[in-house]
Amino acid sequence: MIRKAVYFDNNATTRVAPEVRDAMLPFLDELYANPSSIHRFGGQLAACVEEARERMAALLGAEQPSEILFTSCGTESDSSALLSAASTCPKRRKIVTTTVEHPAILNRVRDLARHGYRITEIPVDGKGRLDMDFARSAIDEDTLIVSVMWANNETGNIYPVEQLSEMAHSVGALFHTDAVQAVGKVPFRLSEMPGIDMLSLSGHKFHAPKGVGALYIRRGVRFHPFVLGGHQEGGRRAGTENVASIVGMGKAAELALASIEVENTRVRALRDKLEQTVLKTIPCVRVNGDPEHRLPNTTNISFEYIEGESILMLLDLDNICASSGSACTTGSLEPSHVLRAMGVPYTAAHGAIRFSFSRYNTEEEVDFTLSKLPGIMEKLRAISPYWSSRNK
Amino acid sequence: MWNYNEKVMDHFLNPRNVGEIADADAVAEVGNMSCGDALKLYLKLDEAGKICDVKFQTFGCASAIASSSALTELVKGMTLEEASKVTNRDIVAVLGDLPEEKMHCSVMGMEALQAAIADYRKKKGLPGGEGLRNDDHEGRIVCKCFGVTDVQIRNVARINHLKTAAQITEYTKAGGACGHCLDKIQEILDDLNRETAGEGESPKDEFSSLTPVRKILRIQDVIDKEIRPRLEHDGGSIELIDLEGSVVKVRLKGVCATCPNATLTLRKLVQAKLNEYLSPDLTVEEA
What we know:
By secondary structure, chain A is an alpha/beta fold. In chain A, 40% of the residues lie in helices and 14% in strands. Chain A is globular. Chain B folds into 3 domains: 6-124, Sufe protein. Chain: A (Alpha-Beta Complex); 141-199, BFD-like [2Fe-2S]-binding domain (Arc Repressor Mutant, subunit A); 207-286, 2-Layer Sandwich (GMP Synthetase, Chain A, domain 3), CATH 3.30.300. In chain B, 46% of the residues lie in helices and 18% in strands. In chain B, helix 2 packs across helix 4 (88-95), helix 2 (62-75) crosses helix 5 and helix 6 (150-160) crosses helix 8 (182-199). Classes of the chains: A alpha/beta (392), B alpha+beta (287).
């Protein structure tokens, strides 16, 4: 049995909160009825699903619970949003998104491109900030939908979605945002952001289990279902409800709402301590992203002249979990598309490590990691030909 | 998560022969920063012409570091003649095994060694100093993203008996970024396979004299090695159903099953390959 992990990979997934697990257990036990059934047993579960919907609406600051559609994951929510837009506004043929979106968006729009849609990807600068002038000229009368992530999974950058949604609405286009990384980490008041037509989220990024997500669809926005079949979710998403996970996500939403303050104070302080100490104590490091507009839990640090997988392997020996923008970690051969879009030099892109925090992290864990990092970098840099030639 | 074995982890965590040799007899550097791995190799020879010291520096993942370390252990004490016969398979053998996707790390080791030997021969004015690469690539670039040439692809395919473009990507990275060269790589492999098939005795003449069971085995073999990998590359597949006289019955699967060009595939690819490898009399029909 390995020692308890020091887990700084919360943008990949998070632990299920104990309160969430406890809330779910009855639904894996005696509360097994189908919420669509006519008997009171089923009706009782339907009420639990609706309670979860209310909690989701509260977390998002949505006007009504009926604006929440439960799905199986963030990716399904993203595909549902884009395909619904395409089928409800058939005359418009252009989709505007960004170069730094999650593959859930990029691969969906690239598939739509094969069906005749024109795709425009808004580029970013060296800090990963969107080129807003480009966006303004790209969003035109032919634009069907603008889809821009709320926050980037690799750098934590937060994008000006409200401003972009206004641009979309000014030409009659829809606006969707993939907020998978943002929900639970920053406050949402969707009732006050009338430009956001649709928003994707995923439960397991904020301490609910994997396999459940949601799509927010603003009241009045036309929607065509992605998963067809039964009448569940008001006919908008067929398939028997994943009641236990939906209830779990509802509980997680309630907890997230109560701890938004913690995310932005204690979690932020832990992230900042790690980042600042690394910058001070290890030579040739750089932070990727836009520190001014960034999630409180994410830092992406490049350790120059060494390669990310090696770093992760050595961290792993100390049971420290992080992730990398390096090519080698995924079996793909190119470094992260996000860092490449930002023009991060190869010297830094291959050695980029993402540390992503949650409210379950402790200062001890940060200190432990800080005690290990310098040795790891020294060891790998001693092997690197670029490090030695740099010193000549 | 990669499942590296203990030997790979040992060479990664305790790499042998790291460093530089100030008065090295040969130095070579292959790979580069943009590709995500690079290896600089230094050789020192004794009076008898044996490698008496070897050092390396590597930028790369755990398997790249382990492959480099294994390479240095392998070649120490060898003459250059012996070292020139070392392949990536020998490096993998020292390590026990590497994940398929990481085979390019062992190939980088082999290429660095070959480049260092070429560097030595060049410095000494010996023949063989030109042919091997040390950044001046021999051959023509096939993969622009990773700068891999047809000569490298053929070389690695021959040594490791590779049949598909996907394998070439695992062993050389070629085709692993934009993917535009994958068809080109497959063509190179097909040419190579034709050449090497010609090296053995030609099975064509005797095919008609085989028993039906042995004929089917032969056909199955050609389908497995020559035909299916091509179709799988495009998302399809093929199954041998039966043999009636000289009519081979097959079933196309995956995207091939619904492809409007299915008859063309049957004639141009499946039948052509069977004619080429087994017998000109064979015809193909969809079962």
